[in-house]
Every structure is written in C-alpha cells, then in structure tokens.
Design brief:
Helices cover about 25% and strands about 35% of the residues. With about 220 residues, it is of the alpha+beta class. The strands form three sheets. The protein has a six-stranded antiparallel β-sheet with strand order 5-6-3-9-11-10. The protein has a five-stranded mixed β-sheet with strand order 4-7-2-1-12. A two-stranded antiparallel ribbon has the order 8-13. Belongs to the PIGX family.
Length: about 220
C-alpha cells in the first residue's frame, strides 16, 4: 500500500514538472557596458515551437528614459539583414534623460531552436547632481511574442503589433511565458556631473575659449 502511494506521488511530481517546463529559455545580458552597448538575447526553444515553420518570434523590449536606440542604426542593420528591429516611434537621440520617455522596441526573428540577437542601445545624459557619482539604470525583462499563420487553439494573451519590423500591417501576436536563466540583473551605471564643480567648469571653459580666440586672432593678424 505504501509503495503504491509513493508511486502515485512520484507520478504527480513528474506530471507537474512536465507541465511547468517552459517552452522558451531566455538569457538577457549587456555586452560592452558603457554609453554604447549591446543588449544580447539568447533564446532556446523546445521542439514543439522550433518546428513551427509558419511562426515568427518578436521580442517586445521596453527601454527606460535613460536609454534609447538609434533609428538610423536600426535601419542600416535591417538593410544588411543583421537585425530586424524597429522602435514604436521616432527617436530624438539628442534629448537628455529628464526630457525623455520610455521607448518600445520590437525585434523580429524566424523561429529556430536557438536564436541569438544583439540590440544596440545607448545611454542618455543625466542632469548633474550634488556630489555627482553614478545613476543606476536597470533594463526590464522583455515580452516574448509569437505570430503563426495557423492560429493556435490555446487561450493565450494576444497583442496587436506590426507584422514585421516597421511594417504598417498589424497582426495578432500571442504572449508566451518563458524561463529567465539570466545569471545577474542587467544594470548599467551612468556617470553624472557634480554640481559642486559648476563654477570651476564655467571659469575654465570661458578661459580656454577666450585664450583660443586670442590665439587664432593673433595668427590671422600676423598672416
């Protein structure tokens, strides 16, 4: 009797483990930590997804106001077929952090058992503060969406998004859960100016500018 109970309990554990097994494994990491970095995505899909030739994968990444993507850079990567990505709006690369809002970026890829994608990201300048230091910028986790020409019978959350990078046509995408196996949080550290150095910077800047003007004027008059 005890053996039967143990066997039944073991079967229940196996069933639970099977049901809870994620179809997608994701590793998200920052490469070349600095003002200009790459946000790298490594995805592993199980056979039930990777064999679907009629499906496309989309990573919906929200970037905080401290970060931006360069639309011209993404256009060039699309032209070279190196990365199919597009921002949801026109990006002003000159805006500082305090005048900016978060950005939605959509990255597309064909379904495969293993997918590696690199999104170029850039830090915006922050306002100076007393004592300066660094501002911590944490990158949120993305959404993994899949669109198939043959609709799935599963009841999954659907989103209406562009069918492909920068497309005017919209399709229904299903939100897929995934297992995040990233080892460490994705955090960037942005150096900010020190307000206590304000007057020193102004004086030195004016002095160098005036000295440069005098030097150039002297050369012109001598010539």
């Amino acid at each position: 009797m005890i053996i039967k109970i143990l066997l039944i309990y073991q079967c229940i554990l196996v069933i639970k483990a099977t049901n809870s097994k994620s179809e997608i494994l994701l590793t998200q990491s920052v490469q070349n930590n600095g003002h200009h970095s790459n946000l790298q995505y490594s995805l592993e899909l199980n056979s039930s997804l990777s064999h679907r030739n009629d499906c496309t994968l989309c990573i919906h990444q929200t970037l905080p106001s401290s970060l931006y993507v360069n639309s011209d850079e993404l256009n060039e990567l699309r032209r070279l077929n190196q990365l199919l990505a597009c921002a949801s709006e026109q990006i002003d690369v000159e805006k500082p952090e305090y005048l900016s809002e978060e950005i939605n970026v959509y990255i597309y890829a064909a379904i495969n058992s293993s997918i590696m994608l690199n999104l170029p990201i850039h830090l915006r300048y922050h306002s100076a503060k007393v004592d300066g230091g660094y501002e911590k910028v944490e990158i949120p986790k993305p959404l993994i969406l899949i669109h198939c020409t043959t609709p799935s019978k599963e009841e999954l959350t659907k989103f209406l998004l562009p069918c492909s990078a920068c497309s005017d046509a919209y399709c229904n995408w299903t939100n897929h859960s995934y297992k995040d196996i990233t080892s460490t949080p994705n955090i960037l550290h942005m150096p900010v100016g020190n307000l206590q150095h304000y007057y020193i910077v102004v004086i030195v800047t004016l002095f160098v500018t005036c000295a440069g003007c005098v030097f150039i004027s002297t050369l012109v008059l001598k010539g």
